[in-house]
Design a protein that fits this description.
The structure holds 2 protein chains of 2 kinds.
Chain A: H1 2-32, H2 40-68, H3 72-76, H4 90-98, H5 101-132, H6 138-150, H7 154-167, H8 174-181, H9 188-200, H10 205-212, H11 217-228, H12 230-246, H13 249-254, H14 263-279, H15 287-319
Helix pairs in contact in A: 2-15, 4-15, 5-8, 5-9, 5-12, 6-9, 9-12, 12-15, 14-15
Chain B: H1 2-43, E1 45-49, E2 54-58, H2 62-70, H3 73-105, H4 111-118, H5 120-124, H6 129-135, H7 142-146, H8 149-156, H9 159-170, H10 172-177, H11 180-192, H12 195-203, H13 208-237, H14 252-287
Antiparallel strand pairs in B: 1-2
Helix pairs in contact in B: 1-14, 3-9, 3-11, 3-13, 8-9, 11-13, 13-14
Classes of the chains: A mainly alpha, B mainly alpha.
């Protein structure tokens, strides 16, 4: 009798235990999920982090946009912090006049896009050679590629100025464009490295198959390798375009007395003028609004390009089948 | 006969490779190697530029002596705080961008929107624009003031470090702003990891935590290294960096010497990371 009772007690305890464990399991499943991206707790955590960081990134842009549309009344009104009562576009107009926007915009866009196109081709070829081809002293050149990557441009800037002066290239775009033809230029080494790491992840069978089909190295590169590197290409085009668009350092040293300068230089010149005016006692409440309007005018084309390229970026990545 | 043919094809391949790398090598010679040698040459000379010609007077190491010893304030007063700042910024940037990249790689509603937003820093942080934002005080976090972090720092942290920590804290947003490229590199790196491996680990019953430490992180080691290098180089060569802005055309000789000293410092840091990386890589490949 006793034994049976004890047995049923154990069974009951076991059963309760089992239910509890089951409940915990279900709870755990709901909260943490079977996979990392399925749990409720995890999703909450993800969104909290993402939204916070997104806010940090967006805030200056909001500030820029709201400041530039404030007229005098809104600027002086302390109750207006974020949302102005009226929208005033005069600052934008004034900023675009000060920046000489039409001309500088064309210069910036032709400079940045030509460098981007050249860098994509030259860096893809170099990256491909580094990743999959054999040539004499490959290790030495690989080390020199890394060296170029870590070398600050400041160390070669002075001799470069002298060199380009010798060529008669100062105050033209050639100092920015010509190095790009050879896979150098602004952050060229990084783009070569991006392509190199992309090409070295591809399976070896790929070139063997192409070789069996009788494709020569050039044909193989342009028909097989370059087209499948689309995701790397989108990244490189985007980076190259954006960085060349924003770059102030090289143009300021290579084209310092030029009349036709890209937007980054006109912005710096404009800031200088405004500082001078401020120093001369012309204090204006508009200074900040105009500065923000100018910043907006410079950033806006990039934002447009980027919003367009973002689609390509994801699409490119997904087409190559790299995404889960 | 067979041996001959094999040799021939090997030479042919080398020839093809040389053809592909030739433009880059040529560019390297003209735009990197030559200016590099020339700047080294100038750093040992007093350079005087006249209208018709450039005159060089050999003065040996005196530019270096001037910068390193005689007028040390130029370098040390700005260099050491900057190095301390970087020592803190680099890990923050790396961990933050890794976290964000992994989150962005997950599937959730609104992923595209977040990707759009998280790439914004790449557009902003490279230009003059970011300078404007810093000037407007957009770089600070208000939470630092509410928690009175400044006070605790001054109280408990040894002298040389308090100011750089404070500076990093006060420009914490800026640190996050520098992470755009790193996020993208990690994102791209994460996508090179094959989905099949993740599927296999899922079938084997490994949880998300284990999957991260055993698969994702080791797989990302080359990209962590790439990002580390990138962050170091980016921080050290940013045109608004205190030391970089001193390299200008006012005095070619002494500017070149400064650039070289600075470069040797960067090289030391990078070699150190390279050494660390090789150690990490070796210990990981031992496990694999």
């Amino acid at each position: 009798m006793k034994i049976v009772k004890r047995g049923s007690e154990t069974a009951a305890r076991l059963y309760a235990d089992h239910r509890l464990r089951n409940g915990l399991e279900v709870l755990r499943y709901r909260l943490l999920g079977a996979e990392i991206d399925k749990g409720l707790l995890f999703k909450l955590f993800v969104y909290v982090i993402l939204i916070n960081v997104a806010f940090i990134y967006i805030k200056p842009i909001l500030y820029m946009v709201t400041t530039m549309v404030k007229d005098a009344q809104n600027i002086l009104d302390p109750t207006v912090i974020w949302v102005p009562r009226t929208i005033f576009l005069g600052h934008l107009q004034q900023a675009s006049e000060m920046l000489n926007y039409g001309k500088s915009f064309l210069i910036s866009i032709s400079l940045a896009s030509s460098v981007a196109v050249l860098q994509v081709f030259s860096c893809a070829i170099a990256g491909y050679a580094f990743a999959r081809l054999d040539f004499p002293f490959k290790k030495v050149w690989g080390a020199l590629l890394l060296f170029t990557f870590i070398m600050p441009p400041q160390i070669t800037i002075l001799p470069s100025i002298m060199l380009f002066k010798e060529f008669g290239w100062l105050n033209t775009f050639l100092p920015m464009v010509v190095p790009a033809i050879f896979g150098h230029g602004l952050k060229g080494a990084m783009f070569v490295i991006i392509y190199r790491s992309f090409y070295s992840t591809l399976p070896k069978e790929l070139d063997e198959a192409a070789r069996m089909d009788g494709a020569g190295p050039f044909r193989m590169f342009f028909r097989v390798m370059f087209p499948i590197s689309r995701s790397a290409t989108v990244v490189v085009v985007l980076f190259s375009f954006v960085w060349n668009w924003n770059d102030f350092y090289f143009p300021s040293l290579f084209m310092f007395t030029a009349e036709n300068v890209p937007l980054s230089i006109t912005l710096a010149r404009m800031a200088g003028e405004m500082k001078l005016a401020e120093g001369a006692g012309e204090i204006t409440v508009y200074a900040e609004a105009i500065k923000m309007a100018a910043s907006f005018l410079i950033i806006m084309p990039l934002l447009v390009v980027y919003l367009f390229a973002q689609r390509w970026f994801i699409e490119g990545v997904e087409r190559t089948g790299l995404v889960e | 006969m067979r041996f001959n043919r094999k040799l021939e094809s090997a030479t042919l391949r080398k020839l093809e490779g040389s053809l592909f790398i030739a433009p880059w090598v040529f560019g390297f010679m003209v735009f990197v190697a030559f200016p590099l040698g020339y700047s080294l040459y100038m750093s040992f000379h007093q350079v005087k530029i006249t209208v018709s010609s450039v005159n060089y007077t050999f003065i040996g190491l005196s530019h270096y002596r001037e910068i390193l010893i005689a007028n040390g304030s130029l370098l040390y007063e700005e260099l050491f705080p900057f190095l301390r700042e970087s020592a803190m910024m680099i890990p923050i940037i790396l961990v933050f961008s890794l976290l964000v990249a992994i989150l962005l790689n997950l599937r959730f509603p609104g992923r595209t929107l977040f990707r759009v937003i998280f790439f914004l820093p790449v557009i902003f942080s490279s230009g003059q624009i970011v300078q404007e934002f810093i000037a407007q005080g957009e770089g600070s976090l208000s939470i630092m003031e509410t928690l009175r972090i400044d006070y605790y720092l001054r109280e408990y942290v040894p002298g040389g470090w308090a100011a750089p920590i404070q500076k990093v804290m006060s420009s914490f947003v800026l640190v996050l702003w520098y992470s755009g490229v790193q996020i993208l590199i990690f994102l791209a790196g994460r996508q090179t990891l094959p989905a099949a491996v993740y599927e296999a680990s899922r079938i084997d019953g490994s949880g998300p935590w284990n999957t991260f430490w055993k698969i994702t992180l080791p797989g990302l080691v080359p990209y962590i290294f790439l990002n580390l290098m990138y962050t170091v180089v980016d921080l050290f060569t940013f045109p608004s960096n205190p030391i970089v802005s001193r390299v200008n055309t006012s005095n070619y000789g002494s500017s070149s010497a400064l650039a070289w000293i600075y470069f040797l410092i960067i090289l030391t840091v990078v070699l150190l990371t390279l050494f660390l990386y090789s150690r990490v890589d070796k210990s990981l490949s031992g496990k694999r």
